[in-house]
Amino acid sequence: xxxxxxxxxxxxxxxxxxxxxxxxxxxxxxxxxxxxxxxxxxxxxxxxxxxxxxxxxxxxxxxxxxxxxxxxxxxxxxxxxxxxxxxxxxxxxxxxxxxxxxxxxxxxxxxxxxxxxxxxxxxxxxxxxxxxxxxxxxxxxxxxxxxxxxxxxxxxxxxxxxxxxxxxxxxxxxxxxxxxxxxxxxxxxxxxxxxxxxxxxxxxxxxxxxxxxxxxxxxxxxxxxxxxxxxxxxxxxxxxxxxxxxxxxxxxxxxxxxxxxxxxxxxxxxxxxxxxxxxxxxxxxxxxxxxxxxxxxxxxxxxxxxxxxxxxxx
Length: 314
Prior knowledge:
Blueprint: E1 11-15, H1 44-56, E2 61-65, H2 75-83, E3 90-95, H3 100-110, E4 114-118, H4 124-131, H5 136-148, E5 155-160, H6 169-178, E6 182-187, H7 206-211, E7 216-221, E8 224-228, E9 235-239, E10 252-255, E11 260-262, E12 271-272, H8 278-290, H9 309-312
Parallel strand pairs: 1-2, 1-10, 2-3, 3-4, 4-5, 5-6, 6-9
Antiparallel strand pairs: 7-8, 8-9, 10-11, 11-12
Helix pairs in contact: 1-2, 1-8, 2-3, 3-5
């Protein structure tokens, strides 16, 4: 289905929880999130129903997000249900990796095609400081478990933050020389707790190209401009929501864990879906797609999202 700007919308980011096992400083306040009543969050049946309706509206790819999706009870069963939806071509999941040692195998068996693993630093002390609750070894063990379970083409998502991890870019690039992974650098976005951070924290990913001119451009994928170091097994992705917004190519919608459709991550506009079924649910999703905003306004002001990232779905 096409939106009002003629963009084909075929990608759904479906949030299954706003809870997380970490409390990353750019995403959450130190005390974390207030745990909501069980009934405030979509049930597994509601999530599956909305996913099926979205596929009938033209969605071909679903990515499960959170919060941290692997803290959601029944996540493997949900994956198995979603993978059986006729017409769904790709099922992906973004995770902080902490629970992959236990769940990578079951997720693969349930039909998850690809994993993105968040990893903002390769230094244990920095990892502990950023996540407040995590240990770097947990994520590294999760990566090993994902590979052992048969996941190929792993993507590591690294939020580029000035004064925090910009001196580790070379270390991340070195990973691509050894492993067939894609390391993706994502510009920090002014939303949630980090909206008030100093401007020096918000770096353009173009700075990586300036520092490492040997990076060779290859075919893009989705919203990522992609590169490869000579002789590398893996690749490098650059995602630039601020410096080179990709709104004109955006093909995604989002459904939050409490059942609201968002056409744009940074828009305050939300369409309630909960309580709708059948043709009414499908009509609401089509309306949300048709009304998808043309672009965000991060170049002029902080995000209008009205929620933190974990409340929306990463």
